[in-house]
Amino acid sequence: MNNSLKKNNSQEFPEGMVPLGTSVFQFNCHPGVSCFTHCCRKLELFLYPYDIIRLKKRLGIDSESFLTSHVLVSQAVNPNFPTVQLKMLDNEEKTCPFLGRSGCTVYEDRPSACRTYPLERAVARTFTRGRPDEYYFMTHHLYCKGHAETRVWTVKQWLKDQQIQYFNLMNDLWAEMDTLFAGNPWQGEGDAGPRQQMAFMVCYNLDRFRQYVNEHNLLQEFDLDKASRRHIEQDDEALLRFGFDWLKFTLAGISTLKVKGPGQQ
Ligand code: SF4
Ligand code: SF4
Asked: Quick one: 183 exposed, middle or buried, by C-beta within 10 A (0-12, 13-18, 19+)?
């Protein structure tokens, strides 16, 4: 499995990587392939905030429990913010904890990387109609026999089939945060200081952030209409979007939120 890549404005890609564009590719994955579930082991499977929302809901546990039981935190990619990976089982094959006898047991809620494979996604820091430009590349792993199947796809068809568009939308919001964190916005506190811990909570421990929002009456501080406030109170994705806006506002002074004026209820 592969996580999303990042690309800068230079329009250059790592050597040997050619974006698929509108060309077609041959691939299929189904229980009949000889390699079925081979790719669900020994993975460096990076999880994004929306992946965690989907998985914790699927498992019926809160974000704190999910982090405790299923996550490895390391300083792998962004020098100024921890990286979150799915913890593989401690067995000989290091299998994914969600791999069952007949395949993925969380299939409808599987993470972004599992949906995108065998493609890799690169996101540019240039935008078209408000969305970052994206590029897809084909990966080839010798064990994966899906490339020998005859079904043909365009990238667009693949994304639709894997129902990944909404994941990408949420991941793009996350990518903005990752870029902000890469700029070391911790105001001298360094890594693992209170600001970074707060940011980690917003991104990955959403149920704990909900408690924080309630305990500190955080929504009351901002000029939000009643419907938006209720949506944030009740919906994880709305809370995550609010959390991102709040981090941009508090860490970088970006005017994503408006503080209530005197006398405003
Ligand atoms: S989440 Fe599902 S598809 Fe992804 S590695 Fe685990 S078992 Fe495989
Ligand atoms: S075809 Fe590729 S993606 Fe599908 S199970 Fe086999 S290794 Fe995994």
From this structure: exposed
Which neighbouring-strand residues pair with 24?
154
End-to-end Cα separation, the chain, in angstroms: 49
Q: Compute the distance from residue 41 Cα to the ligand 1 centre, in Å.
A: 8
User: What are the distances in angstroms from CA 236 to CA 27, 209, 222?
Assistant: 34, 10, 19
Chain centre distance of CA 76? 15
Distance (Å, whole) CA 115 – CA 53: 16
User: Which numbered ligand comes closest to the C-alpha of 46?
Assistant: 1
Runs of H (alpha helix) within the chain? 49-59, 63-70, 112-116, 155-161, 165-182, 194-204, 206-215, 226-234, 236-252
pTM score, two decimals? 0.92
Residue in this structure with the two tokens 């996580």, named with its chain if needed: 3
- CA angle, 187 as apex, 185 and 193 as ends, to 5°? 90
Mutate to test the pocket of ligand 2, among 38, 40, 45, 119 (most ligand atoms within 8 A of CB): 38
With a CB cutoff of 8 Å and minimum separation 6, the contacts of 28 are: 146, 149, 150, 151
Instruction: Please give the chain's pLDDT, 265 residues, in tens.
Output: 333 444 444 456 777 788 998 999 999 999 999 999 999 999 999 999 999 999 999 999 999 999 999 999 988 778 899 999 999 999 999 999 999 999 999 999 999 999 999 999 988 777 788 788 899 999 999 999 999 999 999 999 999 999 999 999 999 999 899 989 999 999 889 778 999 999 999 999 999 999 999 999 999 999 999 999 999 999 999 999 999 999 999 999 999 999 987 777 6
